[in-house]
Design the sequence.
């Protein structure tokens, strides 16, 4: 009897996740991966949905689990996936978010400007690939869509990838928002491959509808919830203020070297030194920074930090039309007077913005339905689906945030 | 139509939690309560159960929800609970863990020696009571069991309190360990009151059995899981080493004032200054500290911190008998040689200990079963229950932890 | 301490249902209500979804449970509902389906033509009201919408009534079709009353969307699933054949008096005798009848019955356009030849039909959204909802069923 | 790409069940298997737990699903199971209950005396094997434990078989009794094979404990619930009375041939004719019979039948000691007077009995724990488990049933 090292991990969403290959163990045990344990998946959503504190590490494991299921289903239908491809695509999904910094999307362009998390993910994968003597070669090919079976890449990144399936399932689970629950198991059973491209069987149409509607609801009800936006913008404004104060080389603004680096020095060149700093960053640095800055002499900075810690956030409003310039000016003036700050700092206390969401975009990548007779249709062209006008249109909402 | 401020909070465990009283709002918005958002309920259990990252704030809200249910059920059975008592007992359960420090039980006696979290809870409640002009008077009476209806205190702290019901339900939910699931809703429906004491109706016996068995299983499978113990002991050893290094007044060991205070100065007197420091502490301080100390020149400290961050924990073993002295000595010698440390520091790398658990203790407080004919029996005396010999006995397990 | 008779019933969907009023006990213990135990809620859906075997009795209890929740929520918001109104509206929901016959909707107009189940429900309520000395007077007023608080009637029968909320929740639960899950608890928390009419709070819009989308999906995926339709039509055809054979007063077609009555004699007059027969009917009569008729000398009848019992159903196809006359003729001819039957009987073996569904109909009763500023909008007029074109349009699908 | 016929079935308990082999399709489509659709798994438990109306067909499919999981897990650990063995063991579990008659255990020895359901299962398998040209040869070998890999039989019938895992999971799910929930997925992951015998890995001990405790609770709380027992005994008494009346060859007692056969003629010889009658029987025959007999001139029979239909059951009491003879006599006398029946018929209205349950029996088949060092221990010998005295002892409870 061949004995393989084998581990099962409890997951509240799927029950059990099985790890049964040495490369998967190596990835999970790597410090790059363990760092994800200290980064929350949903950033500030926990200020509205207090259960939503799960980590990016668990999301990565969950997406890996769905990939295991997807590979099994596709093989059961006769799709050829070699043992090497299997491990590569599983490794790729484990690593797809490895380049996320603290509080993920909420801080992405503020903390590390000019470099996307996908670029950093790729750099980190390459570095791990060196550590692992090239075992990630195929993983990187698939991740960068340079492999001759595009469906493997589509499983990682596409309209119906296991990344989305996991984050919708997981975020709705932990936040307790049942509106976001999708039938991931049914969708997986409906996937198929034609000409090396991912398709959905005809009878899976309603599950796809459900998936797109759930995704839309999670955006408006959770990810773009006005209080969540308000909290994330407050964190953003804090970091912007810190970055501004760094220009006066005030020592008191410093916290720890990696954070000092990205807030004071980083110019957009992700070289080895920058990458090393990146790998040392996690959510705790931001929270500790905010706690320290809440005692900083700059009144704007300490005000924002104290408010953040005590969850006394900006009041926010959301509407379908942009806010009138006059109305905004009035609110700015009010903030200046109330808090005794200078007009040039008023934008820290009052500002407007726009949130957008498109449920289904045909341009980039479409969801293709494979009919029994072999024809293929984009889901937006199927009769009587919900996906037509409404779900394909981009929806814009305008918000104003105001400290009171 | 009377309009009351009313808020519902999504909770993945119970669905929705309703807040509908001004005092409850005041408590939840208080910085003392918001601090619990930054303290994880299950400390290092997340290193084994990656979903178990929920916060003490959510536990407090959950226990409050169960208390709302308990009050409704008891009233529906004719138990008299006044409006004032209702708010007081709900406030008390919200505040019952307010005195927990970073990583709760894992660090309790290490970070803040000589003072229990219950004592701090009471001090913080008294301080909040001042802020709230005495609105918490009855709350404190009930919390300290100085009220003439003991069942209200028993609902907060007893063999069958809503605290335990929530943490078992919640911890099993987030860890994904189905063995810990209890029928909290059925237990609540079986509660009753006789002579102002909490009782369980006869037909609730099997639910109580299930509750005690689930609790036992959570202890051995989760709370005292050998890897969880290993991780928590590593954190403990790190703080002990820091405290030791503080004796040499080495500035480089310092991190932030509240942590420096408790690791370098605190003598056990929880005065106003100490309490202010306490209120500024949360999990992020510990993690940030460990990250900083991982670069500290002390080899023992930096070794433990690096290992902790990368989840390269002590190897541990657990057994029913104490470990032989000779065996332990041999392991200590091995550690000294492998890591080139001094013998007096070996206890940081290798040590033994004992974990105990008693599922049901009759001495302190018992679970009383009320029969239809009015007689009352301790559950351990009921025929054919599981609670007799096995669940009443204290079980000891011995562990050894070793860095390799 | 006042002791009230009190009973809790386990329900897999909601956990526990509490019965705590003598009138509710009387209704539940009445033979009219107990009869619902022998009538399945989803008729032939179990031939596709084998878990969907729950009874109408459980649906009635579930809807009653949601009514209890609705009353509590509305009162908590200041809506005045008297104790008498509370019991009346709870009684009404328990009794709303009391007039359903065997296999409910599937056989409704076939087994008991000319009389709707609502009419029978009302007759049975009146009869029970006599037995109960007028205790159901207010119940009947509310049920027939003759009470001055229309919102009580709307909770029983309207676009957002607890009947629909229960059947969607319950049918998706038992069938295992997660696409039909709705957030019933959130919807209930979003209900409110203005001018005695039921409204939904603004922030409940997404839950309503979810509800309507789920309903739509249950229709197409479950209730109108082509194999479910095929099975129900087979049962209908069997009864039609039996009714036809009754015209020849063939004794061998008879089974039990109540079924014989409705298949052989009933002319549409629901007098006391007819009602007594009705109350003696349940699913078992139909199944036993089919088992008996499977040995009947009429070849069409015995064929259909055997096929039904062995689940060798009509093959069916569904499409957006009506089937071509020529195509249908060809299939009819094929059936005649294959089974050696007479042309006039061919319609038992091959036939076409149309299934329709409108997710949201504004005409009858609308779902009104109450905004914070007091304005009211029909949900179909709210910006960016899914409910506009798509969900308001009636969708028609055409099917053909064919025995092969 | 090889195209296999493949079907997924929604199951509320496990999500989806996949059928992907021609023999499995043949079995499921066979009339013997479809008959199980008309037999409820939990007999009269639905009179207490109204959700518990699921069928034996669904249980068989569920057990099949667990078998699929078990085969995958064991193979993943290196246990060799050939493709032929896989299909055979899956077929065997699908067919393991094929010999159950109406209302399964409740009527087993009353309706078809002298022949166990296992014997009938085997006869029906042999008949199906003829229909299927010997494709079930290996299935039958495994079912009868005549195959050289006993672990395959143990998966079907043993202390830890998938039959028990499914019925505990399913019965607790449908009844809504959370006390019976087991961690079937964890148990399956803990199974292993040594020397061709089924074992459990050391770290699965707590899951086994949970399983045995859950089983014990289901017995006392559900299967042997006093009202469930009361309802089942009422059905038994009805059939006993019918059998008695058959001795007087009263035509009016007859219903349908198969039921007449087993109540009037069957002598214990399960020949072809008897088997054909058996295959025509299901729950509907019993219910229809009871409905007919409720009008029968025999006062005892019609009384019991009317009471049964209206759920006006025997009152029952349960206690740890046998009931005093004198007390029983008094109740009998009371029944004779109240209902004006003859003394020899009193046992239909009042009787006593005993219910027993042993949670864990070592004698027949034990649960073996495989330690990492290769040693094997019976779970009852493991330190500190719950299984020792309490769960191994047979518990007896005594009941009395009385019509009032």
Sequence:
């Amino acid at each position: 009897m061949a004995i393989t090292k084998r581990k099962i991990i409890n997951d509240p969403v799927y029950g059990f996740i099985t790890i049964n290959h040495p490369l998967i163990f190596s990835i999970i045990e790597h410090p790059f991966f363990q760092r994800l344990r200290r980064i929350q998946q949903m950033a500030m959503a926990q200020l509205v949905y207090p259960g939503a504190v799960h980590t990016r590490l668990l999301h990565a494991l969950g997406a890996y689990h769905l990939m295991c299921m997807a590979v099994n289903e596709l093989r059961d239908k006769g799709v050829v996936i070699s043992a090497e491809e299997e491990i590569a695509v599983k490794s790729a999904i484990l690593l797809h978010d490895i380049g996320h910094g603290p509080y993920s999307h909420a801080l992405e362009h503020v903390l590390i400007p000019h470099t996307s998390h996908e670029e950093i993910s790729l750099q980190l994968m390459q570095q791990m690939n060196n550590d692992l003597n090239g075992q990630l070669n195929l993983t990187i090919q698939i991740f960068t869509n340079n492999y001759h079976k595009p469906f493997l890449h589509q499983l990682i990144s596409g309209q119906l990838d296991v990344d989305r399936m996991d984050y919708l399932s997981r975020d709705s689970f932990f936040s307790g928002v049942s509106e976001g629950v999708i039938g991931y198991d049914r969708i997986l059973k409906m996937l198929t491959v034609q000409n090396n491209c991912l398709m959905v069987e005809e009878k899976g149409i309603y599950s796809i509808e459900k998936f797109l509607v759930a995704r839309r609801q999670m955006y408006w009800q959770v990810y773009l919830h006005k209080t969540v936006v308000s909290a994330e913008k407050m964190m953003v404004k804090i970091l912007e203020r810190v970055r501004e104060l760094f220009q006066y080389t005030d020592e008191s603004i410093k916290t720890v070297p990696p954070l000092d680096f990205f807030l004071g020095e980083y110019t957009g060149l992700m070289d080895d030194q920058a990458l090393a700093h990146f790998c040392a960053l996690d959510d705790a640095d931001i929270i500790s920074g905010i706690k320290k800055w809440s005692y900083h002499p700059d009144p704007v900075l300490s005000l924002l930090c104290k408010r953040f810690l005590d969850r006394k956030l900006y009041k926010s409003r959301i509407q379908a039309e942009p806010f009138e310039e006059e109305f905004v000016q009035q609110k700015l003036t009010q903030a200046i007077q109330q808090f005794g700050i200078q007009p040039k700092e008023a934008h820290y206390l009052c500002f407007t913005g726009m949130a957008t969401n498109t449920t289904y975009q045909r341009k980039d990548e479409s969801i293709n339905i494979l009919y029994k007779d072999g024809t293929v249709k984009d889901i937006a062209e199927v009769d009587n689906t919900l996906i037509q006008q409404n779900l394909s249109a981009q929806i814009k909402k305008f918000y104003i945030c105001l400290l009171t």
